[in-house]
Design brief:
heterodimer, A: mainly alpha, globular, B: mainly alpha, two-stranded antiparallel sheet, two-stranded antiparallel ribbon, 6 helices
């Protein structure tokens, strides 16, 4: 009896796994590379990540560096004194550490091939982002609970940990995302 | 003069800031004195005026410190651009505040730029810190 039960549980688990996998078909690719950072970090890397999250996460989510190529991050880091209308300047040594961190973990794909030479500062300007969010209505984004596309974590509930799976989406006042 | 400095240091130590930040304020006070011989100490009331008055900010729009931090320093605020929650400024409620010179220096520079579109003077910075310490 126990054997049969165990078998049933195993089959169910397997089925569940397959189901989840299928649901995640449209999974964000950038994030997979973010999660590759699964190999243990050295204490120095840990402190760099902590610095990045503290400094870049005090006014908005600390976006995963994988969302933009190096030239975008360089442009951002070179214009911090006028960062989307606010002064976000950093102490020179922190600035250097963060710029290096972004360069090391930046997307290897340029992501701006359709932008006629412009260098995206906002992740939401990149053609990939635009395509992924094409069915999201303006109202969903501008409502007070979300405010703008800059607040990934308003809908992507696991965004802070680098996970943007479709099944984790909860749009305030709308709920799950159904394709 | 030495006596005044000791009294100032002592009265500051009764307020909520780390020794490092108190030292920073002491340096600000020296600069303020050098810039204006009539300067005779920081003033929380002037700090309050700096903190609560509205100015044309970096974006060319009306802006005040209170636009994000709210009028009550014991409450948490909200970044007016992103909506991200800002922990209370009051050291009484939030003991992390006024403990790191590096943090204090960074935010004073940034936020004077955001609200006043210029850096604050030593006196203005000290006045604002004195106001925050008392709230």
């Amino acid at each position: 009896m126990t054997k049969i039960l165990n078998l049933t549980v195993a089959v169910l688990l397997l089925a569940g796994g397959v189901y989840l996998y299928a649901e995640d078909e449209h999974e964000e690719h950038a994030v997979r590379s973010a999660n590759v950072a699964a190999k243990p970090m050295t204490p120095q890397e840990k402190s760099t990540v902590a610095l990045y999250q503290k400094e870049c996460g005090s006014c908005h989510m600390a976006y995963q560096p994988q969302f933009l190529p190096k030239r975008s991050w360089d442009k951002t880091m070179n214009t911090l004194e006028n960062h989307f209308g606010t002064d976000a300047s950093l102490d020179p040594s922190d600035h250097k550490i963060i710029q290096n961190y972004l360069a090391t973990h930046a997307s290897k794909n340029d992501r701006m091939s359709d932008m006629k030479g412009a260098v995206a500062l906002r992740i939401s300007e990149t053609p990939y982002f635009v395509r992924e969010h094409r069915e999201v209505t303006k109202k969903m984004v501008t409502q007070p609970e979300v405010k703008s596309f800059a607040n990934c974590n308003a809908c992507h509930t696991q965004a802070a940990s680098g996970s943007y799976r479709e099944r984790e989406i909860r749009i305030p006042n709308y709920g799950r995302w159904e394709d | 003069m030495k006596y005044l400095a000791i009294v100032t240091m002592f009265s500051m130590s009764l307020m909520a800031a780390s020794p490092e930040v108190l030292q920073y304020m002491n340096d600000l006070s020296k600069t303020a004195k050098a810039e204006n011989s009539a300067f005779n100490g920081f003033n929380a009331a002037r700090g309050k005026e700096i903190f609560t008055s509205t100015h044309t900010g970096k974006q060319g729009k009306p802006m005040a410190c209170t636009s994000c931090h709210t009028l009550n320093l014991a409450n948490s605020g909200k970044n007016s651009l992103t909506g991200k929650v800002i922990e209370p400024l009051s050291p009484r409620v939030n003991p992390q505040r006024l403990t790191s010179t590096k943090e204090v220096n960074k935010w004073l520079k940034r936020n004077f730029m955001d609200v006043y579109a210029r850096e604050g003077s030593a006196q203005e910075k000290g006045d604002v810190l004195t106001y925050i310490m008392k709230n």
